[in-house]
Design brief:
434 Repressor (Amino-terminal Domain); 359 residues; mainly alpha; Serine Threonine Protein Phosphatase 5, Tetratricopeptide repeat
């Protein structure tokens, strides 16, 4: 039973101070403070009055229905994850907002909604002017949660979303202020846990860190290093591919087929600008092969490379911002005018046919 936590959540939800609640109940503010920190409990005669004041039942106040509530929230999160997996962000948002109507002060649902809204914003990044309302909602919900929630893990995830929202809306100083509140790379939970655990658990944790570091290197390289220098870009994409090939010595790339697809697609585009037909064809062929391999992942499977051989590649854990498929991504790229010079090449036509076979 955690009646103190419940009283605090209900008081905050109703925008009431400890002093105001104390006056309504005829007790001292110190008494309310002691309830909320579970040092003491309210007198049993006060329970119906407190419940009536917050428009809840005494069972809810005492947490009798907390198990049922936890199960309902878990179902809401799982349903939202299913929509995230197929890239239906609007349905994901709808499910979470509906859940928050039933459980308006649940920080897990609120954090997931903030994440879903961020996904929606970035999926529609080419229409940023019309997305300002989304940014404002992210900021409003994030600031509300940070004011009320004491769970550090939830707070850190929300701080990250808030930082990006401030940046996108043009408040760079506030974004930097938020960013400075975050732990450094080597002070995060994952690194600490790898130092504290033993045996197999330690190895698994270390492998998760290495995999995370690989993803970070690839994402940072894709989004931060690319510029207008074609030769430089080509070297960056080639070096990223070399890193992936070095890590996955058994050529079972799993999720990282997606990185390889995108890298080779960008290589083909850069070569197309240079009108280097042979390298365009080679890069596109490899890109389509990796797209196909990525889509062939239908169930959870352990990686076989030595660095990740104790962790899983699980397609169900993937969150997509949109319903756009790998087929659409490739076709959109190939429809660019830079590829016009090669469209009559029989090899290019064969590649197009292979792309059409993708999902």
């Amino acid at each position: 039973m955690n009646i103190g936590k419940t009283i605090k959540e209900l008081r905050i939800k109703n925008e009431m101070t400890q002093n105001e609640l104390a006056n309504m109940l005829g007790v001292s503010m110190q008494a309310v403070s002691r309830w909320e920190t579970n040092i003491t409990f309210p007198d049993i005669t006060l329970l119906p009055i407190i419940a009536n004041l917050f428009h809840v039942t005494t069972d809810e106040l005492l947490g009798v229905n907390s198990f049922k509530q936890d199960e309902c929230i878990k179902q809401i999160i799982n349903e939202s994850k299913e929509f995230a997996r197929i890239g239906d962000t609007l349905k994901r948002i709808e499910v979470l907002k509906k859940g928050l109507k039933d459980y308006p002060n649940n920080y897990i649902l609120l954090e997931n909604l903030i994440s879903a809204l961020s996904s929606f914003y970035y999926a529609n990044y080419d229409e940023k002017t019309s997305q300002n309302d989304v940014l404002r909602e992210i900021i409003e919900l994030s600031e509300k949660l940070l004011k009320e929630c004491n769970d550090n893990m939830i707070r850190n995830r929300v701080l990250q979303q808030l930082c990006y929202a401030y940046r996108e809306i043009g408040k760079k100083d506030k974004a930097i202020e938020v960013a400075t509140q975050m732990a450094s790379l080597f002070e995060c939970k994952e690194v600490l846990m790898s130092d504290l655990l033993d045996g197999e658990e330690k190895i698994i944790q270390a492998q998760h860190i290495i995999e995370g570091a690989l993803s970070l290197i690839l994402i940072e390289s894709q989004h931060k290093l690319i510029n207008d220098n074609l030769d430089y870009n080509i070297k960056i994409y080639e070096r990223m591919n070399q890193i992936i090939y070095a890590v996955f010595e058994n050529k079972e790339y799993g999720f990282y087929n997606l990185f390889l697809m995108n890298n080779y697609l960008e290589l083909a585009y850069n070569y197309a600008i240079l009108q280097d037909i042979e390298n365009v064809i080679t890069s596109l062929t490899i890109a389509v092969d990796h797209a196909s391999a990525y889509q062939d992942r239908t169930s959870k499977k352990k990686y076989t490379n030595v660095l990740f051989n104790m962790i899983d590649d699980d397609p169900k854990n993937i969150i997509k911002n949109t319903k756009i498929t790998e087929k659409t991504v490739i076709m959109n790229k190939l429809n660019k005018e830079e590829f016009a010079f090669i469209k009559n090449d029989i090899r290019f036509k064969e590649i197009l046919e292979k792309v059409k076979e993708l999902c």
